[in-house]
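step 4 of 6: structure.
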Amino acid sequence: MVNLTIDDKQVTAPKTATIYEAAKLNGINIPILCHDNKLKPFGACRMCLVEVEQMKGRQIPACTTPVTEGMIILTSTPDIVKARKMVLELLLLNHPIDCPVCDKGGDCDLQNLTYEYKVSANRFTDEKFHHEIDYNNPLIERDMNRCVLCGKCARICDEIVSFGALTFIDRGIETKIGCEFEGALNCEFCGSCVSVCPVGSLLARPFKFKSRFWALTKQKTVCGYCGTGCNLTLGVKDNKVLTTIYDDNQGFHKGQLCVRGRFGYQFINSDKRLAKPLIRRGNSLVESSWDEALELVAGRLKSGNVAALATPRLANEEIVLFKKLMELSGSKDYDHSAGYAHSALTEGFAKSLGATASPSTILDIQKSDLLLVVKTDAYETHPVVGFEINMAVKNKGVKLYILSDKRGKLARLPDAKTLLHTPGNEIALINAVAKTILDEKLAGASAGSVEGFVELEKGLSAFTPELVSAQCGLTADEIKQLARAYAAAEKPLIIFPVGLAYPGHNAEMASALANLAILTGKLGVEGSGILCMSEKNNSQGAVDMGFYPEAGAKNAIQILDGCASGAVKTLFVAGENPLVSYPDQTRVRNALEKVDFLVVSDLFLTETAAMADVVLPACSFAEKEGTFTAIDRRVQHFKPAIQKIGQSRSDFEIFSTLITLLGGRAPVSPAAVFAEIAAGVPGYESMNYATLGETGQFAKVAIKPVFNSVSLTASKAESGKMALVTGSALYHCGTLSQYGEGPMHVCPEGYLEISRTDAANMKVGNDDLLTVTSASGSAKLKARVSPRMPVGVVFSPYHFSDSSVNQFWSGAAVTWVTLAK
Amino acid sequence: MNPITPIMNGLKITLSHMFKKPITLQYPDERPKVAERFRGLHALNVSHDKAKCVACYLCPTVCPAKCITVEAGEDQNHDKFAAKYEIDMLRCIFCGYCVEACPVDAIRMTKEFELANYRREDFVYSKERLLEKK
């Protein structure tokens, strides 16, 4: 810490702070246009000029000058105010004064400063710019005439998003922000540039002309898409969520969001939302009253042979109630995420670490010195975690190793080492790394005393790097180098995504990775360890609440089989859309058709809901309250932003009414249920619903490492066939994002990514329709020729109802398919 | 004082009015002369056959009675215009702030004061009714 004086006030600030940061830290506001919390100092706008006595009264920029001991700083002398006014005059010289029609009005830094400094006239005259305005993009509108060249958009796109879509082009007075060769914007559409733009140069088109900033009610909440648990501010007017608002002080990610968080909110107020309960009469679903629908459901629940599938998008409190409801109806058969997407936690970590949660947190990424990421898809499934990886690698020089069956965005980071293996061989590869560590005596001192060490040594004997490398299409040296780097790193962190589209990321993989961490003793120290990234916003919560079958009870796949065989008479599906998201559509359809009585509670009339006997309209996260648990066990509280749409009810209300109808006692509020959770769930002990807040609290994870030797061989390659791997698209999460307009603008349908070589061999171009056939079925998908795919491997995302992947994907990690034009 | 004096004084005033112009207007046969700065019914100014309003939302923001509803739209040239512009005359207090706030001189107040109507909904003036008549 250094001591300095700012405006006659004695203050202290960290050694690394700039004058601007030191002033802000001590409640002194210095005006600025080109600064953002997350970005490196740049010094473009010259608004933050201050005087430092030691520098003989010269005016210097506060945002790029580091503090030194004993500095005496003045931030607003008459001279400084005069200089700032001049800066504003010069900026306004070329800036069109079209505030009445500019959507930024009211939230514009330039407007606010002009007002604050009373710049009402301009001494200078010059012509305004006449740049062409880009209206073509469905998400981001670019009007370079309003630009003040602060460079924040270009810097955030480079420093954090690592895409580099925008940059300064041309020179001198002609300088502007543009894309390569002045082309159209074709990027990830995360909207980070829009969020930091201090003027109206970059605007969110979905929100264009919808409302003024000051007319919006701002409600802080937690994003309802992936498991990262980003904090979000919703802008609400007339009971409609109109936009998301940027707040650079919010959450660990400092307001940074991905495309679905920022542009995918439209599902909340979608016209397709269900407003009334529906009951099947004959062949059609007819609107009915809540009382009638719930009486009917309660009657079926009383009659036994009930099973339940829930989406891990429900709040913790709702999941607890759902479990209670199932217990009341005498059933132990309930599950979520197709029964396998959570197995890395519920089986893998449970065995290897003695806990069903990751011991590391997202915050560890910045504190680590080596990241081992399994699959480049980690970026697509959890983009904001991806940004953290970008920043760690680019700013902190953290080493990045990737095991993946295809290249991707992460593989392009500086010095990233990608071990590109043939699909399905992850576990063999991880075991080979462990084997090298054992053979080269790189294991930690305490590894030998951990339970299961002897079995592990025996189990790994077959996984020599030489054997595995031949099988994976790598060289033994690559594997050995990774093993040495991992063992040598002080704080290595393993990151791997799990989810419906990643059946290969299962319990075995979690154990294999845990073995690696236990073997080297890189566990339990801040910055190191292992982080399992579960897919949905409350996947970790669903696991913590125990919403998965105990020993002897049916898991999701067995429940569906039970429906088909008649063992399950009533199936209650809360929020899931198994017909699209679960593997093997034929099997799921058969089960849903055969089951006696199907109850679905959902926001929309999904494909699954359309088959139901009773459909209950549920409400979205923006209309209810509760808690979500993020991938690193961050428990966050969210509040309603709008009134419930139509007659929809929260799942909490639905389950509590049903519990009452079944003769049980339903808790009165989510707060009461959370008190039960805090009393009963390990790690949640010290938590209090009232004080949790939207930044949340970490639930502690107590681990007891045990070696759990695993071996799993990849399915044999079938000659003449391509290896299909499924996964997540960057713009989507589950099947919910199909109802968000933003994601659908940029990625409206399913596709098949195919390597350039294969495409050339088959004479296939972009958007050509390909028939994909596997042992379990076939479907037509558009081709997308991509440089990231290795030869013989194709990739398809699973989110889409139209031509869904599960028509030919039966749940194998690698599906062997033939392609035909 | 003589008790007759006040009565006489009163009668004097009454008598004097017989030689003055009457104050009462025989409305509606006679029309009042409305002052130059009278604040009556609003009108939306027109220029180039289009309402000048750019839907900047300053009038609904400044309106103390919250009687103005604006919804912006985007036209073919991607410009902003008022897709909906409504004033609820039952709520309006005729303060004229909307005129003062307008940055593009799109709204003014006319001398029109005959605003009576039979139905409540008729008091909500839509954009078409507010557009200035030529």
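step 5 of 6: annotate
 - The longest helix of chain B spans residues 4-17.
 - Residues 27-130 of chain B form a domain with the Alpha-Beta Plaits fold (CATH 3.30.70.3270).
step 6 of 6: archive
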